[in-house]
Design goal:
536 residues; mainly alpha; two-stranded antiparallel ribbon; 71% helix; 5% strand; globular
């Protein structure tokens, strides 16, 4: 890969975004888990739940602060590295980000302060409400950001204005309720819930292995397993909904994910494994599950899913249609103030394909002068890298089903087997702590890499979106970002490890006294509930 301005800009934004997303899932999930724990505390008045809320809340706070720092930096890159993108679609893309900053982020940031410093100034119920508002703010932030991203995947509610040479919003309602955005939101937040559940489960398992903070760990495992099982099941279901949405909004991405080179007679099979060969347009050694892809992608046994070769041919046709729109657009620019209705009508009739004509800008300055060979090259560019998408998607799916199995096991052990966890199972819980982040990063890779060569699907090619920067500028800033984020990552890990090793240190005396009374009461009444202390 040649490291030109476009590729370096992509690399820098990818590094920034994927690093930022190391913090987002844990923030989304821990905010809900902490709110659940405080709700139990308010309902039961048991100090152990207050101690749990403070402990996991501290880890949430560390993650939240570093997530905010990396998120702000990422948003500045739209103006620094992607200035033409910001100019071309800023009217639409900027609206959800503005709402996120004005509503969700300020809601979240305000109540985070009250959560940490309001324990002795608010009543229990008031503080519980604050905890839920923090969780609500975190999830609202994700909603508006994913609405913006969802519009890039499926640009609805907007139209190109030939007078301003920009995309303009035509329906805020359509942008907000974009089916891709809504599917991405529920799938992403569910993945965040799984991430937090696995994190809480793993840390709690480590405490049990070390014989420390046993009561806190047992209760935390119960919450994490119950919450995590529901979240893991929803991730799979909601992920399936995202795939169904891609069937009619991002057909090329779906075909590339499945390495489906030719249109298969309905219902199409699902390729479980194989070796995609993009040069030969073939998948070697593939193992297929009959009918599965047809059911997943179309919810039917009669609808076809188009293959890559057919979609490439469609792209070539759309490029030719887009050239008609491009030619009309150039005439409109030349005849400002004297645009005939016929010229306007000609442009409007083909404007949906204008972005495809822009793909030719990589090969010829004036797309109208493109040869058939250049049109064919531009059409081929609409095929993303098949092998990386194919394996990234399968890695994400495999991890998703593995989380269901792990959470189901700990749910059963916690609720029906007297909280008895074999040591190998506890070590497994510790070992899988990093895996939700791997799954989340794979998911984002599929979403963003699969959209290439578009910044806004079918509207604006990535090659046209960048700022006029030099390779040297980008190399220097990329090195700076990598260094800065590496330092932040070390700080995050050091703080997390420090506070996990220290464990819950607040309200210790009150909690220990309550635990003594609680243990005596359980043994006196032969308690056998999930929180009962096993007999010696």
């Amino acid at each position: 890969m040649e490291l030109d301005v476009v590729e370096l800009s992509r690399l820098q934004f990818a590094a920034t975004a994927m690093f930022h997303f190391l913090f987002v899932p844990l923030t989304l999930g821990l905010s809900i888990i902490v709110a659940i724990m405080e709700t139990v505390y308010v309902m039961t008045n048991r100090p152990i739940w207050r101690q749990m809320t403070k402990f996991w809340g501290t880890l949430f706070g560390i993650n939240f602060v570093l997530g905010v720092a990396t998120g702000i930096t990422m948003e500045f890159q739209f103006g620094m590295n992607w200035s033409y993108y910001s100019h071309y679609v800023g009217d639409i893309f900027g609206a959800p980000l503005a709402v996120e900053g004005l509503m969700a982020f300020f809601l979240e940031a305000t109540f985070v302060g009250l959560f940490f410093f309001g324990w002795d100034k608010l009543s229990k119920v008031q503080h519980m409400v604050v905890a839920w508002l923090v969780a609500l703010g975190s999830n609202f932030s994700a909603l508006w950001i994913l609405i913006a991203n969802g519009w890039m995947q499926n640009p609805v509610g907007a139209a190109f204005n030939p007078e301003t040479m920009r995309m303009e919003m035509t329906s805020f309602f359509d942008v907000v309720f974009n089916e891709v955005a809504q599917a991405k939101f529920v799938h992403t937040v569910s993945a965040g819930y799984v991430t937090a559940a696995v994190f809480v489960l793993g840390v709690s398992a480590w405490y049990l292995l070390k014989g420390r903070h046993v009561e806190l760990a047992r209760r935390s495992i119960t919450v994490a397993a119950s919450f995590g099982l529901a979240a893991a099941l929803s991730v799979v279901v909601l992920g399936d909904e995202s795939g169904y949405s891609a069937t009619h909004t991002q057909k090329m991405k779906l075909a590339a994910m499945e390495a489906m080179w030719e249109t298969h007679e309905a219902p199409a099979p699902f390729t479980a494994v194989g070796l995609p060969d993009q040069e030969a347009r073939e998948t070697h050694y593939k193992v297929e599950i009959p009918w599965a892809m047809g059911l997943i992608g179309t919810r039917s046994l009669t609808h076809e899913i188009p293959g890559i070769n057919e979609l490439e041919a469609e792209s070539a046709d759309r490029i030719r249609e887009g050239l008609i729109a491009y030619d009309a657009l150039m005439e409109i620019r030349e005849n400002r103030g004297a645009v005939t209705p016929e010229l306007r009508e000609r442009f409007e009739a083909h404007s949906d394909d204008l972005g495809y004509a822009f793909l030719l800008k990589q090969y010829v300055e004036d797309p109208r002068e493109a040869t058939d060979a250049q049109i064919a090259m531009a059409a081929e560019d609409t095929i993303p890298g098949v092998a990386p998408l194919f394996w990234a998607f399968r890695g994400m799916v495999a991890l998703g089903f593995a989380f269901i199995g792990v959470m189901a096991y700990f749910f059963v052990q916690a609720n029906f087997r007297g909280m008895r966890f074999p040591r190998p199972a506890l070590w497994l819980a510790v070992a899988i702590i990093p895996t939700p982040w791997i799954a989340a990063e794979l998911g984002w890779f599929v979403a963003e890499y699969g959209r290439q060569p578009w910044t806004v699907d079918g509207v604006l090619p990535t090659a046209l979106s960048v700022s006029h920067l030099s390779v040297q500028d980008l190399l220097i800033t990329l090195a700076g970002f990598v260094l800065f984020y590496s330092v932040l990552f070390v700080i995050e890990m050091a703080l997390m490890v420090k506070y996990i090793r220290r464990g819950p240190v607040e309200d210790v005396e009150e909690t220990e006294k309550w635990m003594e009374r609680h243990t005596h009461r359980l043994r006196t009444h032969d308690g056998k509930g999930p929180f009962a202390t096993p007999a010696e």
